[in-house]
Write a structure and sequence with these properties.
Number of helices: 15
Strand order of the largest sheet: 3-2-1-4-5-6-7-8
Helix content: 40-55%
Mean pLDDT: 95
Order of helices and strands: EHEHEHEHEHEHEHHEHHHHHHH
Low-confidence stretches: none
Strand content: 5-15%
Number of strands: 8
Shape: globular
């Protein structure tokens, strides 16, 4: 099947490779000309603009976009709609907010273009293992481009999950769950690392992969990380978030669903970015005020 791929970052480039391996014809565009050149070297057809990409696609045209959520996705879709028409389709495989996807679906539909939201999981391992795809949109439109999904996903790794927005909503919650799982592993290994027993964390991670109830792919990755850097001495404890955890917590509040684990795992990421917590300073000062508890002074204050 022929399709366009817009965005050749870590995910888009690997997806393009997997599609080419599956004998699809892929026309690619990225603002990074070297990324386009690399994909062309693998067998893709390069384009220097969205207009050129659309021109190189036969109708009905299918364009998969893998660009950052928010304004970059909005700008890409609006630009593409200038070059697409009735019967064509856009697939957003990025981590977009599901409500934005629903709005984009309406925008595309006004031009007769199908809009499909494909929640995509698999990370940099997707090229080898395949991508888990949660796909939302008009079911008939999804069926038309299904050969793409079947190539990208492993066996049983793709499903149509519902109307417009359903794909990105399920991916949002998937990532919210991931936040909680990551936090639990992080806390557990820190307790082990701080204990009196001098554990070999790589040994334990590897041990738990064998018949333990906490074994998982994330634990496999922990084993790999500890194998490469046993004390994680080269890793700074600063954890970003790309939005899905925040959106999951917001939807939990909207739906009156208690989600303390996911909520606290999100907040712990905020804490990881602080060199020092101002709220902790306030607590220390108040404890000193009401109970005379010791304050640990800043180094500069001690010198003064």
């Amino acid at each position: 099947m022929q399709l366009g791929m817009v965005g050749l970052g870590r995910m888009g480039a690997n997806m393009t490779t997997r599609l080419l391996q599956g004998k699809h014809e892929v026309v690619v565009f990225d603002f990074n000309a070297q990324a386009v050149e690399h994909a062309a070297g693998e067998g893709a057809i390069g384009a220097s603009s969205l207009a050129e990409l659309a021109a190189k696609l036969a109708s009905p045209k299918v364009v998969w976009i893998m660009v950052p959520a928010g304004k970059p996705t909005d700008d890409t879709i609006k630009a593409l709609l200038e070059h697409l028409g009735p019967g064509d389709a856009i697939v957003d495989g990025g981590n977009s907010n599901f409500r934005e996807s629903q709005a984009r679906c309406k925008l595309a539909k006004a031009k007769g273009v199908d809009f499909i939201d494909a929640g995509t999981s698999g990370g940099v391992w997707g090229l080898k293992n395949g991508y888990c795809l949660m796909v939302g949109g008009d079911e008939a439109a999804v069926k038309k481009v299904e050969p793409i999904f079947l190539t990208l996903a492993p066996k049983d790794g793709y499903a149509y999950v519902g109307a417009s927005g359903a794909g990105h909503f399920s991916k949002m919650v998937h990532n919210g769950i991931e936040y909680g799982m990551l936090a639990a592993y992080g806390e557990g290994f820190e307790i082990l690392e701080k204990s009196e027993f001098g554990y070999d964390l790589h040994q334990l991670a590897d041990l738990w992969l064998h018949a333990s109830v906490v074994r998982s792919w994330l634990l496999e990755l922990a084993e790999l990380a500890f194998r490469e850097d046993p004390g994680l001495k080269d890793v700074r404890g600063y954890v970003d978030d790309s939005g899905e955890g925040r959106w999951t917590v917001a939807e939990a509040i909207n739906e009156n669903v208690p989600a303390p684990v996911i909520t606290m795992s999100l907040i712990s990421r905020f804490v990881s970015r602080q060199d020092e917590s101002f709220s902790a300073k306030v607590i220390a000062a108040l404890r000193n005020q009401f109970g005379g508890h010791q304050i640990h002074l800043e180094p500069d204050a001690v010198k003064a």
